[in-house]
Protein backbone atom coordinates (compact mmCIF):
# COMPACT_ATOMS: atom_id res chain seq x y z
CA UNK A 1 0.00 0.00 0.00
CA UNK A 2 1.50 3.33 -1.11
CA UNK A 3 -0.10 5.80 1.36
CA UNK A 4 1.08 8.76 -0.70
CA UNK A 5 0.26 12.34 0.26
CA UNK A 6 1.45 15.14 -2.01
CA UNK A 7 1.21 18.75 -0.88
CA UNK A 8 1.63 21.52 -3.45
CA UNK A 9 1.32 25.23 -2.97
CA UNK A 10 -0.42 27.04 -5.81
CA UNK A 11 1.67 28.62 -8.54
CA UNK A 12 2.66 32.26 -8.33
CA UNK A 13 -0.38 34.54 -8.17
CA UNK A 14 -0.65 38.10 -9.41
CA UNK A 15 -0.48 39.36 -5.84
CA UNK A 16 2.58 37.22 -5.06
CA UNK A 17 4.23 38.94 -8.02
CA UNK A 18 3.16 42.38 -6.74
CA UNK A 19 4.33 41.55 -3.18
CA UNK A 20 0.89 42.10 -1.66
CA UNK A 21 -0.64 40.39 1.36
CA UNK A 22 -3.20 38.02 -0.13
CA UNK A 23 -4.93 35.80 2.45
CA UNK A 24 -8.55 35.12 1.45
CA UNK A 25 -8.48 37.52 -1.48
CA UNK A 26 -8.72 35.76 -4.82
CA UNK A 27 -6.15 36.87 -7.42
CA UNK A 28 -5.41 34.70 -10.44
CA UNK A 29 -2.22 32.85 -11.36
CA UNK A 30 0.42 34.68 -13.34
CA UNK A 31 1.88 33.16 -16.50
CA UNK A 32 4.76 31.95 -14.34
CA UNK A 33 2.26 30.44 -11.91
CA UNK A 34 0.72 28.42 -14.73
CA UNK A 35 4.19 27.26 -15.82
CA UNK A 36 4.97 26.25 -12.23
CA UNK A 37 1.85 24.08 -12.08
CA UNK A 38 2.81 22.31 -15.30
CA UNK A 39 6.37 21.87 -14.03
CA UNK A 40 5.09 20.41 -10.75
CA UNK A 41 2.98 17.88 -12.67
CA UNK A 42 5.92 16.92 -14.86
CA UNK A 43 8.22 16.39 -11.88
CA UNK A 44 5.65 14.18 -10.15
CA UNK A 45 5.04 12.13 -13.29
CA UNK A 46 8.80 11.60 -13.64
CA UNK A 47 8.75 10.02 -10.18
CA UNK A 48 5.90 7.68 -11.05
CA UNK A 49 3.44 9.43 -8.76
CA UNK A 50 -0.28 9.13 -9.59
CA UNK A 51 -3.42 10.21 -7.78
CA UNK A 52 -6.74 8.74 -6.74
CA UNK A 53 -8.17 11.76 -4.92
CA UNK A 54 -7.60 15.48 -4.58
CA UNK A 55 -8.35 18.19 -2.04
CA UNK A 56 -8.14 21.96 -2.48
CA UNK A 57 -9.31 25.26 -1.02
CA UNK A 58 -12.13 27.55 -2.12
CA UNK A 59 -9.65 30.02 -3.66
CA UNK A 60 -9.09 30.23 -7.40
CA UNK A 61 -5.29 30.13 -7.42
CA UNK A 62 -5.23 26.75 -5.65
CA UNK A 63 -8.07 25.31 -7.72
CA UNK A 64 -6.47 26.44 -10.98
CA UNK A 65 -3.13 24.93 -9.98
CA UNK A 66 -4.84 21.63 -9.17
CA UNK A 67 -6.80 21.72 -12.45
CA UNK A 68 -3.61 22.16 -14.46
CA UNK A 69 -1.84 19.36 -12.62
CA UNK A 70 -4.72 16.91 -13.05
CA UNK A 71 -5.09 17.78 -16.74
CA UNK A 72 -1.39 17.05 -17.24
CA UNK A 73 -1.95 13.69 -15.57
CA UNK A 74 -4.84 12.99 -17.94
CA UNK A 75 -7.19 12.90 -14.94
CA UNK A 76 -9.30 16.08 -15.13
CA UNK A 77 -12.27 14.33 -13.52
CA UNK A 78 -10.39 12.96 -10.52
CA UNK A 79 -12.62 13.04 -7.39
CA UNK A 80 -11.90 16.41 -5.81
CA UNK A 81 -13.09 17.92 -2.54
CA UNK A 82 -13.12 21.70 -2.09
CA UNK A 83 -13.15 22.99 1.48
CA UNK A 84 -12.65 26.35 3.16
CA UNK A 85 -10.55 24.66 5.85
CA UNK A 86 -7.65 24.58 3.37
CA UNK A 87 -7.81 28.31 2.60
CA UNK A 88 -4.81 30.53 3.13
CA UNK A 89 -4.39 32.30 6.45
CA UNK A 90 -6.69 35.32 6.63
CA UNK A 91 -4.49 38.42 6.73
CA UNK A 92 -7.38 40.61 7.83
CA UNK A 93 -6.68 44.33 7.54
CA UNK A 94 -3.36 43.65 5.80
CA UNK A 95 -5.03 41.96 2.82
CA UNK A 96 -4.18 43.81 -0.38
CA UNK A 97 -1.45 45.95 1.19
CA UNK A 98 2.07 46.08 -0.18
CA UNK A 99 4.41 44.31 2.23
CA UNK A 100 7.06 47.00 1.96
CA UNK A 101 4.46 49.67 2.71
CA UNK A 102 3.39 47.68 5.78
CA UNK A 103 6.99 47.55 7.01
CA UNK A 104 7.34 51.31 6.65
CA UNK A 105 4.03 51.94 8.45
CA UNK A 106 4.33 49.47 11.36
CA UNK A 107 8.03 48.58 11.43
CA UNK A 108 9.96 45.49 10.41
CA UNK A 109 9.62 43.76 13.76
CA UNK A 110 5.83 44.09 13.97
CA UNK A 111 5.29 42.95 10.38
CA UNK A 112 7.65 40.03 10.94
CA UNK A 113 5.58 38.96 13.95
CA UNK A 114 2.37 39.16 11.92
CA UNK A 115 3.86 37.17 9.06
CA UNK A 116 6.09 34.61 10.72
CA UNK A 117 5.17 34.15 14.39
CA UNK A 118 2.97 31.27 15.49
CA UNK A 119 0.40 33.08 17.61
CA UNK A 120 0.40 36.82 16.78
CA UNK A 121 -2.47 37.57 14.34
CA UNK A 122 -2.51 40.61 12.07
CA UNK A 123 -5.33 43.10 12.79
CA UNK A 124 -8.64 41.43 12.00
CA UNK A 125 -6.92 38.27 10.74
CA UNK A 126 -5.64 34.84 11.73
CA UNK A 127 -2.40 33.75 13.32
CA UNK A 128 -0.76 30.52 12.18
CA UNK A 129 -2.16 28.95 15.34
CA UNK A 130 -5.67 29.92 14.21
CA UNK A 131 -4.96 28.39 10.79
CA UNK A 132 -3.72 25.16 12.36
CA UNK A 133 -6.93 25.03 14.41
CA UNK A 134 -9.05 24.73 11.25
CA UNK A 135 -6.63 22.85 8.96
CA UNK A 136 -5.54 20.04 11.30
CA UNK A 137 -9.03 18.74 12.23
CA UNK A 138 -9.97 18.67 8.54
CA UNK A 139 -6.79 16.75 7.75
CA UNK A 140 -7.48 14.20 10.49
CA UNK A 141 -11.14 13.78 9.57
CA UNK A 142 -11.03 13.85 5.77
CA UNK A 143 -7.57 13.70 4.21
CA UNK A 144 -5.65 11.28 6.44
CA UNK A 145 -8.30 8.52 6.33
CA UNK A 146 -8.13 8.55 2.52
CA UNK A 147 -4.34 8.23 2.60
CA UNK A 148 -4.47 5.39 5.13
CA UNK A 149 -6.97 3.54 2.90
CA UNK A 150 -4.26 3.49 0.28
CA UNK A 151 -5.59 6.32 -1.87
CA UNK A 152 -2.89 8.47 -3.44
CA UNK A 153 -3.85 12.00 -2.41
CA UNK A 154 -2.83 15.43 -3.67
CA UNK A 155 -3.60 18.61 -1.71
CA UNK A 156 -3.30 21.90 -3.59
CA UNK A 157 -3.47 24.75 -1.12
CA UNK A 158 -1.52 27.72 0.27
CA UNK A 159 1.65 28.63 2.08
CA UNK A 160 0.18 28.80 5.56
CA UNK A 161 -2.46 26.07 5.29
CA UNK A 162 0.29 23.76 4.05
CA UNK A 163 2.67 24.96 6.78
CA UNK A 164 -0.03 23.83 9.20
CA UNK A 165 0.00 20.34 7.68
CA UNK A 166 3.78 20.20 7.55
CA UNK A 167 3.86 21.22 11.22
CA UNK A 168 1.76 18.17 12.10
CA UNK A 169 3.47 15.73 9.73
CA UNK A 170 7.02 16.76 10.65
CA UNK A 171 6.34 17.14 14.37
CA UNK A 172 7.32 20.80 14.44
CA UNK A 173 6.75 23.10 17.40
CA UNK A 174 5.54 26.71 17.65
CA UNK A 175 9.22 27.62 17.99
CA UNK A 176 10.42 25.78 14.85
CA UNK A 177 7.52 26.16 12.42
CA UNK A 178 8.14 29.89 11.72
CA UNK A 179 11.32 28.87 9.86
CA UNK A 180 9.40 26.67 7.39
CA UNK A 181 9.16 28.04 3.85
CA UNK A 182 6.84 26.53 1.25
CA UNK A 183 7.48 27.98 -2.19
CA UNK A 184 4.94 28.32 -4.98
CA UNK A 185 4.67 25.30 -7.25
CA UNK A 186 6.99 23.07 -5.20
CA UNK A 187 5.48 19.61 -4.49
CA UNK A 188 6.23 17.81 -1.23
CA UNK A 189 5.82 14.03 -1.40
CA UNK A 190 5.06 12.20 1.85
CA UNK A 191 4.81 8.45 2.23
CA UNK A 192 3.06 7.47 5.44
CA UNK A 193 3.26 4.40 7.64
CA UNK A 194 0.15 2.48 8.63
CA UNK A 195 0.12 4.36 11.96
CA UNK A 196 0.04 7.72 10.08
CA UNK A 197 3.65 8.62 10.90
CA UNK A 198 5.94 9.76 8.10
CA UNK A 199 7.95 7.02 6.38
CA UNK A 200 9.66 9.40 3.94
CA UNK A 201 9.52 12.96 2.68
CA UNK A 202 10.79 14.45 -0.58
CA UNK A 203 10.70 18.14 -1.55
CA UNK A 204 10.65 18.25 -5.34
CA UNK A 205 12.24 21.18 -7.17
CA UNK A 206 10.73 21.39 -10.68
CA UNK A 207 12.94 22.71 -13.46
CA UNK A 208 10.81 25.81 -14.04
CA UNK A 209 10.57 26.84 -10.40
CA UNK A 210 11.50 30.51 -10.03
CA UNK A 211 14.47 31.29 -7.75
CA UNK A 212 13.59 31.86 -4.10
CA UNK A 213 14.85 35.44 -4.05
CA UNK A 214 12.15 36.65 -6.43
CA UNK A 215 9.14 35.01 -4.75
CA UNK A 216 7.72 36.29 -1.46
CA UNK A 217 7.17 33.31 0.94
CA UNK A 218 3.52 34.10 1.67
TrEMBL record:
SMART domains (UniProt xref): PGAM (SM00855)
Similarity section: Belongs to the phosphoglycerate mutase family. BPG-dependent PGAM subfamily.
Function text: Catalyzes the interconversion of 2-phosphoglycerate and 3-phosphoglycerate.
Positions that bind substrate: 9-16, 22-23, 61, 88-91, 99, 115-116, 159-160
Pathway note: Carbohydrate degradation; glycolysis; pyruvate from D-glyceraldehyde 3-phosphate: step 3/5
Pfam families: His_Phos_1
Protein name: 2,3-bisphosphoglycerate-dependent phosphoglycerate mutase
GO molecular function: phosphoglycerate mutase activity
Enzyme Commission number(s): 5.4.2.11
Gene Ontology biological-process entries: gluconeogenesis; glycolytic process
The protein's enzyme class: isomerase
InterPro entries found in the cross-reference section: His_Pase_superF_clade-1 (IPR013078), His_PPase_superfam (IPR029033), PG/BPGM_mutase_AS (IPR001345), Phosphogly_mut1 (IPR005952)
UniProt xrefs under NCBIfam families: pgm_1, PRK01295.1
Subunit comment: Homodimer.
Gene of this entry: gpmA
Signal sequence bounds: none
Site, Transition state stabilizer: residue positions: 158
Assigned keywords, A-Z: Gluconeogenesis, Glycolysis, Isomerase
Catalytic activity: (2R)-2-phosphoglycerate = (2R)-3-phosphoglycerate
Keyword Methyltransferase assigned: no
Amino acid sequence: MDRILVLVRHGQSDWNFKNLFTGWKDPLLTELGVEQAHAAAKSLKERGIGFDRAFTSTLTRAQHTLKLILEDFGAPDLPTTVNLALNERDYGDLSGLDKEYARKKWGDEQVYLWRRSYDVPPPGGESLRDTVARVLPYYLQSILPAVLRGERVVVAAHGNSLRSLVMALDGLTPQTVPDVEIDTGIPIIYRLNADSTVASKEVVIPHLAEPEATRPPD
